[in-house]
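Appendix B, Record 12. Input sequence as logged:
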Amino acid sequence: MRVVICDDDIKCCSNIEEWLTSYQQKTKVKLEVDIYNNAERLIQHIKEGYIFDFIFLDIELPEMDGVELGRIIRDTLSDRYINMVYVSNKTKYCSKLFELEPLNFHKKPLRRKQILEDVRKVLSRMHIKGTVVPCTVDGKKENIASHQVMYVESNGNMLELMLKNKKKAFIRGSLEKFKEEYGGDFLFRCHKSFLVNYDFVQSYETRFFVLDEGTHIPIGRKFSGNMKKQWMEYVLER
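Logged structural output:
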């Protein structure tokens, strides 16, 4: 997991980096930690193709505040969910953060326990949703994150994956094998020909799921027995 710390407070950056290094040594989890002391340098690297999974972001940065930087990150890396944790000496900015859906907000001074709990939470999410799927997109071989798949449709021995960015990807195999290898706890078999990603489901109906962008995914009679219960349990845990 690649972690970014963006803060002009050198001591704060040093503390977080030290806690993450210690956690990595004890757990053997591989963490790549990059530190940025201003927003402009990070933005430039993102434009050059730099990607990451998790950011500890100070709200009060020189020249550009962390809220605006958060918007740029969300817009520029829209096909990749970035886990954000905001930090600040003040709490007055909290109301501005809702639209960015941060994982957490911590008031300085930070505590080791807070930071490591955030890390564990993100690692848990990535363990569930971090699998990379080798497939074909627009005739080219690509690796995509499985949590970007909205649904999978079986067509003979070929699977068609509808992605979050509205592109289609293709991979050979069966729905059962795909679910086993890439599905984690978010892709569910709802029909003999479909897997659906519950993260993109807007509503559950008796015979179909409605996805956020309006697509209807059928629910087969064979799978309908405990589908509603399964869906509700997922919603409550999400």
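The longest helix spans residues 10-27.
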